[in-house]
Amino acid sequence: MKSKIFLALAILSIGAYSCVSPKKLQDAEAKYGQLNGAYADLQGKYRDAQDAITKSKTDAERASDRTKSLQSTIDELNKQVDFLKSNNNVVLSQLKDMSVVTGAQAESIKKSLDNIGAKDLYIQGLQSSMARKDSINMNLVMNLKGAIGDLSDGDINVKVDKGVVYVDISDKLLFKSGSFNITDKAKVVLGKVAKVLAAQPAIEFMVEGHTDSKQLISGGSLMEDNWDLSVKRATTIVRLLEDTYGIDPKRMTAAGRSEYMPVAENNTSENRARNRRTRIVILPQLDQFFQLLEKK
Fold it and tell me: For domain 137-294, which architecture applies?
């Protein structure tokens, strides 16, 4: 059917061509060329319009995405603003409460802060004094151990406990069993200790007598029990230090502990021997610390 239409059109064209003058034919061809150029121009503009539409759609999608992103950011910022507003209200409330502090109260707070600073300096001073005291104690211990020499720790022991220096001397070096009469060997040992104590005239000390738990058989002696024995042994040593080695009696205290401060259970002969001892306690110089407290 289409071929017959094309054939008819061709015949009409040939017939029309044969009937049209050359001048009209040229005008028609020129007109056709113009129309064809206009058509081509329109096609180009159409394509440009299509490209612009496509680009606009892409830009619109990007703008939409950007808008969504910006909206999300705005929502997040709004949340932060709300949080800050809430915190600001709390701070304002606190400031309102603080605003009731009077000038006198402010001055009191300042004095309290100043006192804290002064107390801190005071504590530092105490710590320095304690460190100095510990250093003196350690030096004293070293001097005592050096003076005592090679005597075994079982016979004489020098130690520091809670800031106090102790010298424990076994009674087998000092006294015969059940007696407060001092031996010749004891004079040698105590002479070494006295030499160190004499070199520290500011130090005061206490001589303590200790016994085991075995009951004393008096037998008509001057001692009734272990209380008597422990006290008389302490006073014997104090008299020796004063009379023989020239220790100022004002520096010494004599005390008896009887059997009530044992270092071991009184269940064996070895433990009882450990409990029978004389202890020299280097007394802390509390008056110096009280003076320090009064100054502060």
Answer: 2-Layer Sandwich (3.30)
